[in-house]
Amino acid sequence: MALGRILVVDDEAPIREVLTEYFATEGYAVEAATSGVEALTAIRGRRADLVLLDVRMPGLDGVQVLRRIRELDDSVPVIMVTANEDVGLAKETLKLGAFDYIAKPFDFEYLDRAVAAGLARAGTKPAADEDPWKLFALAVFRVTRAMAQPGRSSTGERLEVAALAAALDGAAGRVAAAGGRLSEISFLLDIAAAFGDLPATDRALVEAALEAARRSLSVAG
Predict the structure, then answer these.
(1) CATH domain 131-220 topology
(2) Which residues 6+ apart lie within 8 Å of 76 measured at CB?
(3) Total-model pTM
C-alpha cells in the first residue's frame, strides 16, 4: 500500500518526471498534471492526499490554482514549487493556505520531510488506516512537530529522518533494515524523554504505533 497519493502539477516535463519518479520510488502513489485545469479535475475527483504545485504556469498559474483548491478542499496540503527568483511570491502563498514551499533545485531531504509533515497534518484517510507504516510515520511527525527547541532541532529531526526511512523500508518489505531503524527510534525516544523533550502521552502514542510496525515485520518475516 502506498504511503500517500501525491499530485505533481507542473507544465515542465523534466520537473514532472523528476518528482514523479522520485516519489514513486519512495513508496508514494504519484499522479502528474500538466496544467491547473488538470490539477483541479484531480482534486474534484479526490485523487490526491497532497499536491506539489508549480507557482509559474501558463493559463491558470499556481496562485490561482491554490485559491481554487482551497475552495474545493480545505484539507489537502499544497506545497508550492518555485524558482529561486519567485521565493518571495511562494512565501506569500502561505497566507493563501499553502502548507509549505520549496525552491528549485530541490533539496530532496527537506522535500521528503515537508511531504511527510503535510500528510501528517492532513491526517490519514480511512483506506490508509490499515497501513501500520504510514500510521507510524504520521505519529512520529505529529509529536516531533509539537516539540520545543532545542529538542525539535536535535532528537526531533533525527526521529523524523529515521521514521521516514523505517516506513519506506517496511513498506518495501526490507525487514532487517526496517527493524534496525525501529531500534534506532526506540533509542531516540529514550533520549528525548530523558531530556524532557517528549511528554509521556506523546511517547505512548509513538510507542503504540512502533509496536504495530514491529508486529507487521514479524508477519512479513
Answers:
(1) de novo design (two linked rop proteins) (1.20.1440)
(2) 43, 48, 49, 50, 51, 69, 122
(3) 0.65
Domain ranges of the chain: 5-123, 131-220
Beta-carbon-side half-sphere exposure of residue 47 (alpha carbons within 13 Å): 16
How confident is the model over 160-171, as pLDDT tens digits?
Answer: 999 999 999 998
- Domain covering 5-123, topology: Rossmann fold (3.40.50)
46: left (phi over 0), alpha (psi -120 to 50) or beta: left
* Cross-strand bridge partners of residue 202: none
What are 15-33's pLDDT values in tens digits? 999 999 999 998 899 999 9
Cell numbers at 39, concatenated: 490539477
What is the C-alpha separation between 192 and 144, in angstroms, rounded?
A: 10
Alpha-carbon span 124 to 22, nearest angstrom: 22
From the CB of residue 49, how many other CB atoms can be counted at a distance below 10 Å?
24
111/100 Cα distance (integer angstroms): 10
